[in-house]
TrEMBL record:
Stored Pfam families: Aminotran_3
Family to which this protein belongs: Belongs to the class-III pyridoxal-phosphate-dependent aminotransferase family.
Cofactor: pyridoxal 5'-phosphate
Entries under SUPFAM superfamilies matching the protein: PLP-dependent transferases (SSF53383)
Entry superkingdom: Bacteria
Keyword terms: Aminotransferase, Pyridoxal phosphate, Transferase
Molecular functions per Gene Ontology: pyridoxal phosphate binding; transaminase activity
Organism in which the protein naturally occurs: Mesorhizobium delmotii
Name by which UniProt lists this protein: 4-aminobutyrate aminotransferase and related aminotransferase
C-alpha cells in the first residue's frame, strides 16, 4: 500500500512554475491549513468551466475526465438557472412547509426499489454516511462496522474512523473491521462470492465475540477507492445476507456510483441484485451545489427519528432542492445514464485495443463511466507500477487531459468523466492516453 496520502500532488521544488502560479502558491501556503494539497506535479489553475472543459487564465482548455461531481458538465446552464431562480426568491430550511421539497423527495425515492421509501437530506456525502451510521447503530443496538480494506467514506470524525483510505495517521475506530475484496486478492470470479462471504462472516464472528456486534456493512458498490473492483456482479449478495442474519444493516454508499454513473442502473447497488437498508448520496446530486441525502427503509428511519434529533440548518435548503431537482430532471429526460453507457462501451473497446500494445496496461475494470486501468507490466515491483501510473497521469495533464490514480498502491488510473461526454471527447481522451503511455513506456 502506498504510504503517500496523495501521491499525485504538487511538491515544492519539483516543478518550474510560472511566476503567477508560484506567487499564488506562496500566498496559499501562508494562509491555508497544511492538510490542503494541490493536485498534479505542476498544479492546474482554472478560472472557468463549460461542459467537459476547464480553462486556465490564458484560455487553454483542459478535457476533464476526472471530475464526477459536475456529472452533467461544468456550469450546466439549466441547473444554474434553477439554482439562481430559487436563490432569487428564498433560501429556507426544512422546518417550513415547502412543496418543492416534497415534490423532489417523492421523485427521488421513486428512482429506488419500493422498499426504500424515506429520505433525509444532508449537505455532503460525508454527512450522509455519518447520519447513516447513527441510524444503523441506533436501529441495530450494535456498534461494529464492516468496510473494505481501502475504503473511503468521508471526513467527519465518524466517517474518517471507518475510512482506511485516509492513511495510518487517521486512526480507525476499534469497532471497525476491514474485509479483503476478491479481485485484489487474486480470487477467480467463480469463487468471488464465497470469498467475500467468508471475509464478512469472519468479521462478524470477531465483532460478536468481543461484545461489539454488527451495526452495519458499509460499502461503495463499485469499490472505487479500492481500485474500482466491480465484478462479478452479485458477488456481495451472500455477504449482505450474512450481515442481516446477525441483525446488522446494509449501507450502500452511492456517493461515487450513484445517479447513473454505472450506465445500466441509476444506483450502483442494483448491479449486485441487492436492496440495502440505507443508501447515502452526495457529490453529483447537485452537480456541484453541496447537497446529499440518506434514502432508506421506513422501519430504521422511524426508529431513529422517534427518539433522536436530527435537524440541519442547510440540509434540504430550498436552493439545494431546486438544484437537485433540475439535475434529476435532466438525467431522466435526456436519458443521460443510457448515453453514458454507450460512451463507456466505446471507451472500453478502445482501451482494450491499447492494452494489446506493449505500453504496460495490465488490466481494465469499469462499471459505466467509472474506470480503473491498472498500469505496469506483470512482475513490475509495486513502486515501479505506482511511478509509471503517476507519470502517465502527469503526462496527460501536460497534454491537457485530466485524470488521477486510485487503489491501495495508486497504480490504477482513475477515469470518471462527466456523464455528458460525447464520442469526440472519448476519442480525444484516448489519443492523449496512448500518447502518454508511449512516452512513459519509453
Amino acid at each position: 500500500m502506498s504510504t503517500d496520502l496523495m501521491p499525485n500532488r504538487y511538491r515544492p521544488g519539483e516543478s518550474d512554475l510560472p511566476r503567477r502560479e508560484s506567487e499564488l502558491i506562496a500566498r496559499r501556503d501562508e494562509v491555508l491549513g497544511a492538510s490542503y494539497r494541490l493536485q498534479y506535479r505542476q498544479p492546474v489553475h482554472f478560472v472557468r468551466g463549460e461542459g467537459m472543459w476547464l480553462y486556465d487564465p490564458d484560455g487553454r482548455a483542459y478535457l476533464d475526465f476526472y471530475n464526477n461531481v459536475p456529472s452533467l458538465g461544468h456550469c450546466n446552464p439549466e441547473v444554474n438557472a434553477a439554482m439562481a431562480e430559487q436563490a432569487g426568491r428564498i433560501s429556507a430550511n426544512t422546518r417550513y412547509l415547502e412543496p418543492k421539497l416534497i415534490d423532489y423527495a417523492e421523485r427521488l425515492v421513486d428512482t429506488f426499489p419500493s422498499e426504500l421509501d424515506r429520505v433525509v437530506f444532508t449537505c455532503t456525502g460525508s454527512e450522509s454516511n455519518d447520519l447513516a451510521l447513527r441510524i444503523a447503530r441506533f436501529a441495530s443496538g450494535n456498534e461494529g462496522v464492516i468496510v473494505s480494506t481501502y475504503a473511503y467514506h468521508g471526513t467527519s470524525a465518524a466517517t474518517a474512523a471507518v475510512s482506511p483510505n485516509l492513511g495510518d495517521a487517521v486512526k480507525l475506530s476499534p469497532f471497525v473491521r476491514m474485509v479483503s475484496l476478491p479481485g485484489p486478492a487474486g480470487v477467480p470470479e467463480a469463487q468471488a462470492a464465497d470469498f467475500f462471504e467468508a471475509q464478512i462472516r469472519s468479521a462478524i464472528v470477531d465483532l460478536n465475540r468481543r461484545g461489539i456486534g454488527v451495526a452495519a456493512l458499509l460499502i461503495d458498490s463499485i469499490f472505487s477507492s479500492d481500485g474500482v473492483w466491480v465484478d462479478p456482479p452479485g458477488f456481495i449478495a451472500s455477504g449482505v445476507a450474512a450481515v442481516r442474519e446477525t441483525g446488522g444493516l446494509v449501507i450502500a454508499d452511492e456517493v461515487q456510483p450513484g445517479f447513473g454513473r454505472t450506465g445500466a442502473h441509476m444506483w450502483g447497488f442494483e448491479r449486485h441484485g441487492v436492496v440495502p437498508d440505507l443508501v447515502t448520496l452526495g457529490k453529483p446530486m447537485g452537480n456541484g451545489f453541496p447537497i446529499g441525502a440518506v434514502v432508506g427503509r421506513k422501519a430504521p428511519m422511524e426508529q431513529f427519528g422517534a427518539t433522536s434529533r436530527y435537524s440541519n440548518t442547510f440540509a434540504g435548503n430550498t436552493v439545494g432542492i431546486a438544484t437537485a431537482d433540475a439535475v434529476l430532471t435532466i438525467l431522466q429526460r435526456d436519458q443521460i445514464p443510457q448515453k453514458a453507457l454507450a460512451m463507456s462501451q466505446r471507451l472500453r473497446a478502445r482501451l482494450e485495443k491499447i492494452a494489446q500494445q506493449p505500453y504496460g496496461v495490465r488490466a481494465i475494470r469499469n462499471a459505466g463511466l467509472f474506470f480503473g486501468v491498472d498500469i505496469g507490466p506483470e512482475g513490475t515491483p509495486a513502486a515501479g507500477r505506482r511511478a509509471m501510473a503517476l507519470d502517465v497521469v502527469n503526462a496527460m495533464r501536460d497534454d491537457g487531459v485530466l485524470i488521477s490514480t486510485t487503489g491501495a498502491n495508486e497504480d490504477s488510473l482513475k477515469v470518471r468523466p462527466p456523464l455528458v461526454c460525447q464520442a469526440e471527447h472519448v476519442d480525444l481522451f484516448l489519443v492523449a492516453m496512448e500518447r502518454a503511455l508511449i512516452k512513459v513506456a519509453g
